[in-house]
Amino acid sequence: MTGTPRGTILVIGGGISGITAAVEASEAGCEVVLVERQAFLGGRVARSHQYFPKMCPPHCGLEINLRRVKTNPRVRCLTLAEVEEISGGPGHYYVRIRQHPRRVNEKCTVCGACVDACPVERPDDFNLGMTSTKAIYQPYEMAFPMRLAIDEATCLGPECGKCLPACPFDAIDLTMQAATVELDVQAVIVATGWAPFDAARIAGLGFGTVPNVITNVMMERVATRTGPTGGNIVRPSDGKPVQSVAFVQCAGSRDDNYLRHCSGVCCLGSLKQARYVRAQYPEADIYIFYIDIRAPGRLEDFYAASQADERLHLIKGKVAKITEDAATGMLAVEAEDTLTGEPVRQPVDLVVLATGIVPSDTSGIRIEGGLRTDAHGFLTREQGSGGLLVAGCATRPSDVATCVRDATGAVAKALQFCTE
Amino acid sequence: MEKTVAVYLCRGCGIGASLDLEALRTVATDEFGVAQCRDHPCLCGAEGRELIRQDVLAGVQAPVVAACSPRFMTEIFTFDGCRTERVSLREQVVWTHTPNDEDTQMLAEDYLRMGIVRAQKAELPEPFQEAIDKTILVVGGGVSGMTAALDAARAGYQIVLVEKEPQLGGWMAKFSRQIPHRPPYRDLEASDAAAQVAEVQGHDRITVHTGTVIERITGQPGQFDVTLRTNGTSSACRVGSIVQATGWKPYDATRLGHLGYGHSPNVITNVQMEAMLASGKITRPADGKPARRIAFIQCAGSRDQNHLPYCSAVCCRVTIKQALLARELDPETEAYVLYKDIRTPAQYEDFYRKAQEDPGIFFTKAEVVGVDVVGDHDLRVSAENTLLGKQIQVEADLVVLATGMVPVSTDGEALRRYNDACAVVAKGEAGAQLETAQATVAELQHLDGTAILNLDYRQGPDLPALRHEFPDSHFICFPYETRRTGIYAAGCVRGPLDAQLAREDGAGAALKAIQAVELAERGSAVHPRWGDMSYPDFFLQRCTQCKRCTEECPFGTLNEDAKGTPQLNSIRCRRCGICLGACPERIISFKDYSVDIISSMIKAVHIPDEFEEKPRLLGLLCENDAYPSLDTAALRRHQYSADIRFIPVRCLGSVNIVWIADALSRGYDGILLIGCKSGDDYQCHFIRGSELMQTRSSNIREKLKQLALEEERVRLEQLSIADFDRLPEIINEFAEQITEIGLNPFKGS
Predict the structure, then answer these.
(1) Is A113 in the B-facing interface, judged by CB distances under 8 Å?
(2) Torsions phi, psi for B661 (to 5 deg)
(3) Residue whose C-alpha is closest to residue B452's, from B440, B438, B469
């Protein structure tokens, strides 16, 4: 048997791992159904400003990958869709998918006339709530599918209907209902990714109550030209430029009270974000409070280059408390420098919490015996049946290149169930 | 030859309201005499698509769809058996320029002319299909190589597995236990190497050659002819793609004298420690007494600019494993771990936690300043800046240096320079050439005999090395991007990895190897031009053997015969068109992308005469990054000069400077070239296209000088895809600059 791959692979999750699995499998010859819960592909990386260590935009690679999706008839892409049930076994899985209504059909040309007509504002989850969109919205400027979507939760429905006459192409259908899609597939790759840890849960660090304390995922949006501040890194409290920024590592991670695991990428994430700050503020003082700086392999080069920055101060010590001077908006970061044994109290304009990676909730997927997880909630590699594979941050906090390697490898394992 | 071209004008998305469609129709029918020209209020709707489809069925061979950017509605405007030409009236004209304006109209008409000309000239490529062998060669029988072999074999492929050692298994077979990679991530796991070896040996689709090296590989994906050498005997096989999983070797500890290695037999490496642990007895090599106080020095040679600048990634966990194992063997053992940072990412934090909970294992951050022998055989490690004090000393029976990983690889391109230089020296050329060659030989002597794959490639016998000698991918999004199509590095040869990551990487490389042969069979390019069936055609009668194409191809596609004539290996080709850009004789072309096609598009633009005072600018831009960026600028309704006419190119490296000469002699006033970032952190998807254009543009400046034209008329910009806000500024600024310089004096001549 030396055969061209046949059959269908279901990929759950349209982030970088899922997209990779889908395009790699389809280019090997398989049919692929890619299911994404959001209205667009790209997941977490689409929200990032730049990748470490190259400081290059994620959309460069996404553009190529989305072209691979668009031009390959073997990939069927379902957005706003969730897998509800998987049954059967290797080579013969039955899958039921809930297709939520987008309420905008394929006639949409993204002309934007409806957006002007819509009276409803909603928090923009793409910008982590830092801005708002209308209830009919384009997730972001390079989103694929390049089509608007209507937020089911906030749209006023046919009673409002102001968007309908605005659309010149009859592309809006406010009565569109959820549908069920049923599939038979040979293998499943679960690449459901991650969500940021809820920083408001961390005692003493002020997130949610102190405006100048933000998270690393917010920082990605803040640094981006299309983000809430037009790419300007400023103090949220008053929009003023920053002269000093502190990064608080392991905000929630490596902590028995919150996440016991290391989130794997936050050290490099903060070193990268320090570069964002440096690019805008050549004179700013940047403080990184850390337990260990974890820069494996040749990512050490990135760390070494960062250490050459004389105004980047690395302090080994876990931050205990952040307090705000309500009059000035200035923050004080309190920690113990474990090397000197001295307490540190560093005033700064802005604090970025390096919040950790939490695996996405997969409890909505009904499967016999459930999906197996470890103590941290990540999916284990060995699942109940051999054709059920796991890749990317769903199984372990990882950087992008590692996720891509992992997703590609998962396809190799899926192929054995797809050969005649 | 003449194709039936038809034009379809979309009136939707503001196109109809902003442009004089009748005038556009006149361009199509009167200037070009196209078979027909239709318009529709919404071409991308079902009715619009059906209209075109019916025409294609009725004999239209080249539909020109003048609507939105080719990046959108791609599948809707794809029709079987013909090539659709897209004219971006929406993004490049009406969304970015004043509606119902003379200049906007001229812009639209020019884009339509360019589209029609391209539709007339470009042919639907026919795939290059030959007999393809789908066997996969895996080089290296360690954990990565065995995983690659097994995964590909299970998927139905025949495997040839080559290992230079007499047995399979690699390092993992030598270690008694491994780092836990399963929940609860606390307990050492038995090595599974023996089971994997047994499975490889028992698999009926895997042929194992141990004690074997590669003598030579010729050919291309799907058609690699491999000569193996086992015990002095050669054998041959044909394979379709290759996984190089040649692994790692420990850093040479003899260079670590400052950490006591060589000064006392009681200073050993972590690899020596593995052997001791496997024997079940931890003793002091000097006197055979039990070693109960063990100091582990982390980053021994790693994260050190004088040795290995990178982090070897696994040593922290290896040390934790060894400390736990030593304690398991003898509970009275005390282990001291002196580290820079403890790097136990992700769930491996649990493994670190277990060691921290162990009362016999002590961790401290420290800068080790020396290891001294005290008395006969005792050791004393001195360290500074520790968590336990400014200066500490640790007495130890045994010091274990956590030495790092060095790839078992070579630099194919450096080897080629070395071999070329050796040839020059051997030939006894005279003068400066000989001196340069001798210097190269001296510089690269250390590479002599390091070839692994022995590829018969003009650009060297092995994969080129990237930073720190790892033949890794430069790309974050595309870690299997390779500079030698169909050959994929996997495992520790391309970066320090733990066994689990090495397994995952082996599986990933196996998939890419499978894909390479499947795509070769279909005649398709591999990433990033997946699905492209075109390939370059060389009109060799006019070749002058200048070797620019063979030198500049980033993927080693072209070999040379003795005279220097390029020999095409189509299946190695990535279809970037850099050879087309390089060729001064203009003899390289693709069916749908050639010097003539782009030249004809450039010439199709109507250049207003000098009295109209309307400058015309040409923009040649990378279709991978700059072009999407231009689309995004349009989506945000950024406005820019209507003087510029853009043509997307496969890569800026595919720009032949004759296009620039043509444009200048045609009367264009300025030329803007937009590519991706070059340099160490290059973003060019074809590695050096953008960089090559920089080199070529210095030739262009020469040319401009000869023509007594201002240098500023040709500008090279590097943009990232995220720079869509900057793009309109760049265009406008360039347009203003050209207006200041004045019109091209060759206009109308």
Answers:
(1) no
(2) -60, -45
(3) B469
Segment B448-459, tens digit of pLDDT = 999 999 999 999
Q: Cβ of B722 and A411 within 8 Å?
A: no
For residue A328, the distance in angstroms to the closest alpha carbon of chain B comes to 34
* Chain B nearest CA to A194, separation (Å): 13
Q: DSSP 3-state assignment of B517?
A: helix
The residue ranking higher by pLDDT, B210 or A385, is B210
A64: closest CA among B515, B481, B241?
A: B481
Backbone angles phi, psi at A226, to 5 degrees: -90, 10
pLDDT in tens, B538-590: 999 999 999 999 999 999 999 999 999 999 999 999 999 999 999 999 999 99
Cross-chain Cβ contact B12/A401 below 8 Å: no
Phi-psi region of B583 (alpha: psi -120 to 50; beta: other; left: phi over 0): beta
Rounded to two decimals, the pTM is: 0.97
Encoding tokens for residue A331? 């923050």
Where do the domains of chain B lie, and which CATH numbers do they carry?
A: 1-124 (3.40.50), 136-247+451-522 (3.50.50.60), 251-405 (3.50.50.60), 594-749 (3.40.50)
- Alpha-carbon distance of B593 to B298, in angstroms, equals 55
pLDDT above 70 covers a percentage of chain B that reads 100
pLDDT of residue A2: 40
Tokens matching residue B576: 């970037």
Q: Which residue reads 């600048």 in tokens?
A: B309
How far apart are alpha carbons B212 and B165 in whole angstroms? 7
The residues near A3 (Cβ < 8 Å, ≥ 6 apart) are: A419, A420, B156
Residue A420: partners with Cβ closer than 8 Å, 6 or more residues away:
A1, A3, A6
CB B621 within 8 A of CB B627: yes
Given a contact cutoff of 8 angstroms between Cβ atoms, the answer to whether B88 and B111 are in contact is: yes
Main-chain dihedrals φ then ψ at residue B562, nearest 5 degrees: -60, -30
Cross-sheet strand order for the sheet of B398-403: B267-269, B398-403, B293-300, B334-339, B361-365
- Contact yes or no for A193/A139 (Cβ under 8 A): no
> Averaged over B368-380, what is the pLDDT?
95
Q: Does B99 touch chain A (CB under 8 A)?
A: no
Do A31 and A76 contact (CB within 8 A), yes or no?
yes
How far apart are the C-alpha atoms of B422 and B426, rounded to whole Å? 6
Rg of the Cα trace of chain A? 23
Cα–Cα distance, B497 to B348 (Å, whole number): 14
Residue B706: enclosing H or E segment and its boundaries? helix B689-706
What whole-number distance in Å separates Cα of residue B190 and Cα of residue B175?
9
d(CA B527, CA B519): 10
The pLDDT, as a whole number, for residue A363 is 94
Averaged pLDDT, B302-328: 98
Taking a C-beta distance cutoff of 8 angstroms, is the pair A327, B376 a contact?
no
In A, residues 369-408, which contact B (CB 8 Å cutoff)?
Answer: 374-376, 378, 380-382, 396-402, 404-408
* Residues A301, B134: C-beta atoms closer than 8 Å: no
B152 close to A412: Cβ distance less than 8 angstroms: yes
Q: Which two tokens stand for residue B479?
A: 């870690």
User: CB-based contacts of B423: which residues, under 8 Å, 6+ apart?
Assistant: none
Asked if pLDDT for residue B155 goes beyond 70, the answer is: yes
Task: Count CB-CB contacts under 10 A for residue A341.
Answer: 11
